[in-house]
Specification:
This protein is mainly β. It has one helix and ten strands; from the N terminus they run H-E-E-E-E-E-E-E-E-E-E. It starts with a helix and ends with a strand.
Length: 156
């Protein structure tokens, strides 16, 4: 009976629940994020608003992005985005111009044309994902509010 109790106890203690907060231990360099590189313009937004993103590879462990929306000649929204490697873990970091706090999202999935990152502590969004199919870049923000899809095409 003691042996069965020990086996059950060991089995239970060695099981870990799946947790989407765990960051991807991704050993490769920035190459998985190269599909972001360049200038993009949103194709599914309001006609009166132009939304763009620009991504530049800064070094082997960082890619920087700038997202902004224009209404006429006025900038109505702007954010800095960074994909950065810390040790062997990758993060998507968002910084708003008038906010000194950076919001960090842990990468939970990375492959050649898509990535997903989460921050369950953030009010909105809790999940950010990007994917590229053919010449279209898609971004989705969700969790804690409405799901919003952004569809981009390459801009000159």
């Amino acid at each position: 009976m003691k042996l069965i109790y020990i086996i059950v106890l060991f089995t239970i203690s060695s099981c870990k629940p799946s947790n989407v907060m765990h960051n991807v231990n991704y050993q490769e360099g920035i190459s998985k994020f190269e599909f972001l590189k360049g200038n993009w313009i949103r194709t599914n937004g309001k006609d009166s608003i132009i939304t763009r993103e620009r991504w530049v590879i800064e070094n082997p462990s960082e890619i920087a992005g700038l997202g902004y929306s224009l209404k006429g000649s006025d900038t109505i929204f702007q954010e800095k985005m960074t994909i950065v490697k810390e040790d062997t873990l990758w993060y998507f970091v968002v910084e708003m111009p008038n906010d000194s706090i950076k919001t960090k999202f842990a990468m939970t999935e990375v492959n050649d044309s898509t990535f997903t990152c989460v921050n369950p502590e953030n009010d909105f969004p809790k999940t950010i994902s990007y994917s590229k199919k053919h010449e279209e870049l898609r971004a989705r923000i969700s969790g804690g509010g409405p799901t919003i899809d952004f569809i981009f095409e390459r801009a000159e």
